[in-house]
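User: My instructor asked us to take a sequence, write out its structure as tokens, and then describe one feature of it. I'm not sure where to start. Here is the sequence I was given:
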Amino acid sequence: MNEHAAMVETIDLTRRFGAETAVDRLSIKVERGEIFGLVGPDGAGKTTTLRLLCGLLDPTEGKAWVAGHDVERDLDAVKDRIGYMAQRFGLYVDLTVEENMWFYADLFGISQGERAALAARLLRMTRMDPFRGRLTGNLSGGMKQKLALMCTLLHHPQILFLDEPTTGVDPVSRRDFWAILYQLVKDGLTVVITTAYLDEAERCNRVGLMHRGRLVRCEAPDVLKRNLEELCYEVRTHDARRDKEFLERLSGVVSVEPAGATLHLFLAPAQTSVDRLEKEAAAEGLPGLSFRRIMPSLEDAFIALIRKAERAA
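Assistant: Let's start with the prediction itself. The structure tokens for your sequence are:
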């Protein structure tokens, strides 16, 4: 047993596939009752991290503990305490909602007496009770996700690992899914979720931004937006494409991204200033640029941090 109170802890967790490093010296802690989000572009190492934490992959180096147990040395104890919902969860489309639940209850060895009460509670919580007799192949994407979640919860896990659970699901179903997650956390569950949606990242207690296998930043979403070294500006422009290309070439500009009819620009205050950018634009014969300091969105912050990481690499 690991004496740490954290529900998940990794120290220098690393996984290589040949010459490629998918997870690179990852050190994180997830506390009990937390919703912890792993976010980042495709290929950042999010899914590989979850697979390492669930014991589906062995690390090349480093250590991981889940629910107080060493994942490599005590995998059976870890499996008893976790639920893992992969991107393609194994639902049987020719079985009904209820039959899928009974199938997973059999797999988990849940007694006949316990499963009826448990299934009734899960069906109520997810508002899937009216559909218990429907064939799974005839469910919407959002309903399939709810069914997968119910099957994952049947054996009372302490911690839930969810790999992009709402990808391709409509906005209303995504909102419903998050309402269920909040209820589960209120009931004592810990959740680690990977997501490509930054509005979902905002709903996490803390987020870990990954890029090329490395943890770039790990903080509460609000703290992450406030604590950037770089300053964020909204730039109004007559020709967004031309001005974006011009601004990107200037020293001290970390990133310039389209944002509706404007541009969002991050600059390093130690290297440049708005005054200097305006002078350089005037010298280039590009009038009409106006800069307004704004609080960055989480998406703005993530893009700036990834651009910065790419430059550093």
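For the description part of your assignment, you could build on this observation: The longest strand covers residues 8-17. Try explaining in your own words what that tells you about the chain.
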